[in-house]
Amino acid sequence: MTAKVIDGKAFAAEVRAQVARHVTRLKQENGLTPGLAVVLVGEDPASEVYVRNKGKQTVECGMTSFEHKLEADTSEGDLLDLIARLNADSAVHGILVQLPLPGHLNSDLVINSIDPAKDVDGFHISNVGLLGTGQKSMVPCTPLGCLMMLRDHHGSLSGLNAVVVGRSNIVGKPMAQLLLGDSCTVTIAHSRTKDLAEVCRRADILVAAVGRAEMIPGDWVKPGATVIDVGINRVERDGKTRLLGDVAYDGAAAVAGAITPVPGGVGPMTIACLLANTLTACCRANG
Ligand code: GUN
Q: Which InterPro entries match (predicted)?
């Protein structure tokens, strides 16, 4: 079997176009322009690329982008003051603090200082609790993008065996909650899981979110399974920098029913979902 390639780039372009249409209507009918504030502390090159892309796509969708770039040695107090100002600013509907933060800053404290209604990352403890109890919340962007692609491919996910490899707060745990919400039988596996290969081979849906290049070989994939590869790993190979997923693509694509490529799979969906969450936050804030 050769897997169907799930085109995240095209899917994300559709989501962004839908968001842009909705933003145009909001402006015309309600005089509202959704605004997204992105806060970057320090000069991590990968984070700078993400933040630039977020800003560009926010504007392309007709929303306002507010970028706050702070020095790497910014104090926690100054960062909390900025977040308090953004919380109080009615032109700002979504706030994203780019992670990871420099080591002297307490990420939990910073994230939990964001107004939960503006927490478009869905990382605030209130949103985590709402998602875990099946209530209306802000849903983390990467898992939301994965869920949208899975629903599009399968229709109903009910009763399917889903294995999520990786237990991060940003991807693994919320992904598992979303799949449970769609009535999958969910296993969260990780680096300490016994017989990880066997666990993966039971998966109708295999989500890889471990951050290790090509950690999952093709013979861990059940024939016909859907493979969602969240990994974006920069690897030097043959003198070139390559982007590799957490799944060994060629081997997995030979047995899977469907697979997301890297790049062009999950990555573009993350920013598209961030824009969708910003629109949602704006609509909720204005009744
Ligand atoms: N760093 C890597 N991914 C993310 C994300 O989805 N949100 C934030 N805030 N930081 C990140």
A: Aminoacid_DH-like_N_sf, NAD(P)-bd_dom_sf, THF_DH/CycHdrlase, THF_DH/CycHdrlase_cat_dom, THF_DH/CycHdrlase_CS, THF_DH/CycHdrlase_NAD-bd_dom
168 known ligand binder: yes
- 97 is a domain residue: yes
pTM, entire model:
0.97
Residues 180 and 82 reside in one and the same domain? no
What ipTM, to 2 d.p.? 0.96
Residues 148, 100 within the same domain: no
Nearest-CA residue for ligand 1 atom 1 is: 99
Cα three-residue angle 200-131-135, rounded to 5 degrees? 135
Number of domains in the chain: 2
For residue range 202-250, list pLDDT tens digits in order: 999 999 999 999 999 999 999 999 999 999 999 998 899 999 999 999 9
> According to the annotation, is 85 in a ligand binding site?
no
Predicted confidence (pLDDT) per residue in 143-184, tens digit: 999 999 999 999 999 999 999 999 999 999 999 999 999 999
Quick check: is 104 in a domain?
Answer: yes
Give domain status of residue 126, yes or no. Answer: no
In terms of domains, do 220 and 264 share one? yes
Cα gap 137→120, rounded to integer Å: 10
The C-alpha angle with vertex 286 and arms to 280 and 287, in degrees rounded to 5, equals 90
CA-CA distance, 70 to 40, in Å (whole number)?
Answer: 6
Question: Best of 39, 119, 121, 171 to mutate for ligand 1, by most ligand atoms within 8 A of CB?
Answer: 121
What is the CB < 6 Å shell around ligand 1? 96-99, 121, 141-142, 170, 270
**Which domain covers residue 203, as residue numbers?**
141-268
